[in-house]
Amino acid sequence: MSTSPTSLERTPSSLDEKLPIEAGAPAVEAQGGQKRSWYRSPLCQVNIVGACAFLSPGLWNSMNSLGAGGGQEPWLANAANSIVFGLMVLTCLLGSSITTVTGYRWALCLGAMGYAPYAGGLVYNLNTGATWLVYLGSVTCGLSAGLFWSVEGAIALGYPDPSQRGIFLAIWLAWRNAGQILGGAINLGLNAKGNKIGAISQVTYYVFIALQCVAPLVAMFLVNPSQVQRKDGKPVKMEEHIGFLNEMREMWALMCRREVLWLLPISLYAQWTSPYINSFLSLYFTVRARALGSLVIAILGVVFNFALGAFLDNERFTKKFRARASYLMIMVSLGGVWIWATVIQLRFLDHKPRLDWTDGQRFAEAWMLYVLFYITYFTLQNNLYWVIASTARAPHELIRLSSFLRGAESAGSACGYALTASKNLPLTVPLSIDFALWGVAITTAWMTVKEVGVSLGIREAEEEE
What we know:
The protein is mainly α. It has one domain (40-464): Growth Hormone, Chain: A, CATH 1.20.1250.20. Helix content is 68%, strand content 1%. The protein contains 20 helices and two strands. The chain has helices spanning 15-18, 42-65, 75-93, 95-102, 104-111, 115-128, 132-158, 165-191, 202-212, 215-219, 244-255, 258-261, 264-272, 274-284, 287-312, 319-347, 361-389, 398-419, 428-449, 460-464; strands at residues 27-29, 35-37. Strands 1-2 form a two-stranded antiparallel ribbon. The longest helix has 29 residues, at 319-347. It is globular.
């Protein structure tokens, strides 16, 4: 496709192609007797992206999985997160256009820069009660994180061979959860004696901020798609240097395709619901119970995602069967979670409990709801990426599909956090909306899922050649 004169161009000779960061990387023999650098392998590169995900959204998720961003009440954190995700809708949808100008390495680096100010705003509020830095941090996080989300997903989908996509998605998501595992372990260690409702220790925030500042530096070790060296020698054709404006046109055309539009409700749903369960955790559980929950869901998320990834890559089953079986298993399980949530939430209408792990069955019933919600939440993310990648008609569409998915997820998160940002709105309201959205999502997404392995995702190997 030709580029219009007004479009911004980026050529392979840009700055990031010249950085000699791979110096000294070990090399192995590849097909044809040529030297292949392990550093440029898909496995190494996805682990670099995963390390950035660990340091940035992983630790961000850890704070939010503790409820209220680690604070005593969820209202301020939920309002701030609504701003974050509202801005991310824009930056996610522009992700492919920005990346065609900057390249994948610089896009990932820029995307990692906004997380530390957000955490800084929370600790400043904890010390002074001032909210201005919380909102400023929300703006910086929203403007950068949307780009990060778009690029990290595209790399996890596009760098590996399509036959290994499920496992590589699990590796990437495991790194995200590793941030939550570390954060949960730190929080539990610092707050294990805190059997009361309250805010997370300030030391926890300082550790998070220091780690998040490292993420942009780690991102500079990424190589762009044209530099990736797969074991089979096939190139990664994810870059299409068509300019900023042409990329926006191509993005719009992709978003209008029927198989992509059917996935819009479930993409909204995928992130819409977590603000409710995080508010549920912060309002009804002690600090140490919240910290334990943050740690447990992250560990179980890694285990279940690797199991799902292995199944999605298992070619003993047809792709049609893998798509349908995994989708139905996850969505039916989510239906059970919402029924359980309704029962528990109705019990709490007249009396707001303060639940700790010493409370026996009463604690277990409500706490396990939180754990099971996040098991299905994590596996849905993995499955949704795998499904939407199957709609790609060429490898360079993966960044567009990732941008679409993350933009819709951001819109869902913005709405979910806006719903839970008011003290006066009972949690039964967001719960009811979340349950209804599940009903819409399970039916509309099926229209695309049932075509995977039938009319979608059946020529991936040919497209890679």
